[in-house]
Amino acid sequence: MAASGNSGVERVLQKCHKCVEAGNFYEAHQMYRTVSFRYSGQKKYTEAIDLLYNGARTLLQHNQHSSGADLAMLVIEVLNAAKYTVTEDTTDKVVSLLRYMDPNAPERLPYLNAAIRWTMKVDNHFSAGHPDLHKKCGMLFWQEKNYVQARYHFLHSSDGKNFAAMLIEYHTSQGFTSEVDLFIAQAVLQYLCLQNKDTAHVVFLSYTKDHPDVENGPPFLKPLLNFIWFLLIALEGGKVAVFTVLCEKYQTSIQRDPSYREYLDKIGQIFFGLPPPQTSPQGFFGNLLQSLLVDDEDDKVATHMPPQPTATTPVKQESNVDLD
């Protein structure tokens, strides 16, 4: 998005600033709206966005929260109308206005949701919103010590390093010592459910390396950390048998949080080709063991099949993973 250089925009901004300096906030607000509608009607979207952005920022800085938020919402409307792509400049403007809003203002959340929906419309590769916008929102909420919101947005970003740093601060300031492994385990499992394996690796390695209460590893003293470590390794091989034995061996750790079973069901489907779990009196681990038995039967059938033509490409040998 181009910087404001249009002489017409500059003249309007000067008039509006004079109104603001005189305390005529209502008049300034209406002038911003009227002129921006005129620009939008003429498809001068860049001028409209520059005018609205400057107006929203000015009014918010003068504690005119409702009027400023109204203009900020109009910025999103113009971005949608113009089908603006997600760029560094557009996301900077969106998050800048979010920063100027009072954290407790009721208009803040609807504005943020509207901005996320805009990124979803113009880039349908990201069903939960563009990761760059989520990253910047995560950084903002982290600065505000709103760890819950920061965690949500980092989870939909690709910034595992800052997510890990935020989780460390979150745990050390508000968590119990006994929860040091729970904070990172849930984050990794949720990343995997979102099919973001690469960032899951980064956040785990950064968290376990930098957290003052986690000893050097792997292996780790806490079994749940070892489970996550082995799970990340198992993803590379995609072997159902390894995944099943891993979940069985660490079921005591997995049972510490009921949500882990649901996450692992989803991970099994995504990375290991398992079907959705059937209702069974044996529960989650019974289903996993049944999957292991089926996998073993498949291996037995394969050994009795007639010899197949050999491939010209050498087969990569799987490394054995010691789960002890």
Structure description:
- The chain is mainly alpha-helical and 324 residues long.
- It contains 16 helices and no strands.
- Helices cover 69% and strands 0% of the residues.
- It has helices spanning 7-21, 25-41, 45-61, 65-82, 88-100, 108-122, 131-143, 147-155, 160-174, 180-193, 197-210, 223-237, 240-249, 251-254, 259-272, 283-303.
- The protein has a domain at 8-124: Tetratricopeptide repeat domain (Serine Threonine Protein Phosphatase 5, Tetratricopeptide repeat, Alpha Horseshoe).
- It is elongated, with a radius of gyration of 26 Å.
- The longest helix is centred in the last third of the chain and has 21 residues, at 283-303.
List the helices and strands and how they pair.
Elements: H1 7-21, H2 25-41, H3 45-61, H4 65-82, H5 88-100, H6 108-122, H7 131-143, H8 147-155, H9 160-174, H10 180-193, H11 197-210, H12 223-237, H13 240-249, H14 251-254, H15 259-272, H16 283-303
Helix pairs in contact: 1-2, 1-3, 2-3, 2-4, 3-4, 3-5, 4-6, 5-7, 7-8, 8-9, 9-11, 10-11, 10-15, 12-13, 13-16
What structural keywords apply?
elongated; 69% helix; disordered C terminus; 324 residues; single chain; mainly alpha; 0% strand; Serine Threonine Protein Phosphatase 5, Tetratricopeptide repeat; 16 helices
What is the number of helical segments per DSSP (H or I, 4+ residues)? Answer: 16
Number of DSSP-assigned strands: 0
Helix share, percent: 55-70%
Mean pLDDT: 87
Largest sheet: none
CATH topology title of the domain at 8-124: Serine Threonine Protein Phosphatase 5, Tetratricopeptide repeat
Parts with pLDDT < 50 across at least 5 consecutive residues? 1-5, 291-324
State the oligomer. Answer: single chain
CATH-wise, what's the superfamily of the domain at 8-124?
Tetratricopeptide repeat domain
Q: Which secondary-structure class do the elements indicate?
A: mainly alpha
CATH top level of the domain at 8-124 is: Mainly Alpha
Shape: elongated
CATH architecture of the domain at 8-124: Alpha Horseshoe
How do the helices and strands follow one another from N- to C-terminus? HHHHHHHHHHHHHHHH
Radius of gyration: 26 Å
Region (Disordered): 300-324
Main location: cytoplasm
Subcellular location: Cytoplasm, Cytosol
Biased composition (Polar residues): 310-324
